[in-house]
Amino acid sequence: MKRVSIILILSLIIIFILASLALGQQTQTAVAKYGKPKIDAQMDEVWKSANEYVTDRYVSGTKGKVAYAKFRVLWDEDGIYVWAEVYDSLLNKDNTNPWEQDSIEVFVDEGNEKASSYDNNDAQYRVNFDNYQSFGTNASKDYFVTATKKTDFGYIVEAQVKMRTRKLKEGMVIGFDLQVNDANMFGNRVGIVAWNEWDNEAWRNPSYFGNLKLEK
């Protein structure tokens, strides 16, 4: 009887762990309000009505020990706008690999197909705390406008990501994610913290993006 009880308890624990993992991997949906801020790393009034979200999926690194961001998103017909306040006590850009510098990444899937590989309307944008831009698949400086500012808590990024294949309108849902890369004093990436991503796959697999709903 004792053996049966132990097996039952272990089974319940396993079920709980699997359910927790599944819940943690659910695709999230954020809401972007309509608005067009000036890209200067200064918070315009229009940002104050935007919903605030937090990067709290720790792809690598431990909560409380690596950088994270609070962010907001706006949109207009030409693209989306991101305001990110990154909490990072040590800023480093020594690594020649831009993804290993202290930076944020913005992922966009204009069609929101949730495909397993990038197509023409998916793109990966990156900017470090010193406003140095770098790019993954399909992205370029022609579609990315950024400004950054160092702060007492880390740094601020304000960015415009222009759409490459379509105009945006109210009611659309596009694929979206925001990721923080955290470097240590030696220039090595020690943390990846995202809003929706959970497995370090977004750079090659858009099905890991969350959803961004466009509202007026």
- Average predicted confidence as pLDDT: 92
* Percentage of β-strand residues: 35-45%
- The 3D shape can be described as globular
| Radius of gyration over C-alpha positions, nearest whole angstrom | 19 Å
Helix share, percent: 10-25%
The main β sheet shows up as: 13 strands, mixed
- Count helical runs: 1
Count all strands and give the number.
13
The topology string of helices and strands comes to: HEEEEEEEEEEEEE
Query: SS-based structural class?
Result: mainly beta
| Regions with little confidence, pLDDT below 50 for 5+ residues | 10-23
Cα separation of the termini = 62 Å
Oligomeric state of this protein: single chain
Can you characterise this structure?
The chain is mainly beta. It has one helix and 13 strands, in the order H-E-E-E-E-E-E-E-E-E-E-E-E-E. The longest helix has 23 residues. The radius of gyration is 19 Å and the shape is globular. The relative contact order is 0.23.
Note the topology.
Layout: H1 2-24, E1 29-34, E2 53-54, E3 57-60, E4 68-76, E5 79-87, E6 103-109, E7 122-128, E8 133-135, E9 144-150, E10 154-162, E11 173-183, E12 189-194, E13 210-215
Parallel strand pairs: 1-4, 1-13
Antiparallel strand pairs: 2-4, 3-12, 4-5, 5-10, 6-7, 6-11, 7-8, 9-10, 11-12, 11-13
